[in-house]
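User: Hey, quick favor. My workstation is busy. Could you predict this chain's structure for me?
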Amino acid sequence: MSKFNFGVLVLGSCLLAGARPAAAQSVMLPATGVVWSGPDDRQNLFSTQINAADCLGDAGISFSLTVTQPTPIYNLQVWAGTNCDVLQNRTDASLSNCWLLAAPPVDTMFPPPVHVRVRDLLYGRTLASSPNAGPDVPLAEACELQQPSSSAQSISLYFMLVDASESIQGTFATWTASYKLTPPNPPLIIGAQSGSDEIHVDFSVDQNDTTISGFQFYCEPGAGAAASGSDVAICSAPNAVLPGASANSVQNFSCGSAARDASTGNATGLANGVSYNVAATATDSYNNVSPLSNVVCQVPLASAVSTDDTASTDDPRTSRACSEGGRPAARGSRSAWAWVCALGCGTCLLRRRRARGRGRSGRRRLRRAEPRRVTIKNSPS
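Assistant: No problem, here it is.
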């Protein structure tokens, strides 16, 4: 092949490559294009986390998309589920992998935001999609999973341009969220002890739920006190703090909390001599709150010893006796330290004197053992 023919071949290849159509249409979802709306307090949650309150409160999510080379011959479709980019999952009625949420027209690069209700987003995973569900799905069914789980699950939204045969054109955008609609199991209170202005609560938790983030205590005055001559609490039946009740109805009785890895905590801010009905709830990392636990009765007592006050101020060996401002914390400790210091100083002085005495006597013995030097003078003959 001549150099001329080779050059023609290369030039023709480049022209053919350049003659290919430009990149097809694409749908993009910017990171800032997701905005939540609704009554739920989503504090400490990521934008990709969905909880039960989002569904029950009819929260919604708006998605601001960017569409390159928009054309009216393709429709924008929004699907929810798993693997919705597979045509069979979108068209086979016997499958429940995907469900269509919206199909707005697109004729501009920046179409109006697409609004999706949380309960519609989760439709295929809840009782709302069951065969027996009627046209007007009760709210409880719309927010109750077909398969309740104590762990979080994932779901995706697909924003795609499709042609008349439902085939995807160009590139599509996805948004994946995790949801947890099942609240954690309530803790089980296994013991409660009196403290001063507080009650020490021991409880056990569901070890299988790894999403638990903390615990909350609720204390309702029990209209009683400690039995005469004993520390046994007497409580009347509670009116609000009831086993299995919703935490939303007892917020006025909130009385302390415990960390996620704790099995004990303090119900605080209580009045000594007044009995309390005490219950607890568990909260997970999706802000779902369990129902109230079992209820126990206990009364704070001024004479109760705090569980944190375990060091004796009369023992000079305790760290507390010397930790307050660098000085002994108790009079008994101060006098004890003074005697210890005096004894130590006296011992040191006695040892030094003995050492000096041994040094002097040794030098005297050494001088006695040295031979005397005698000078002999020769007399003249």
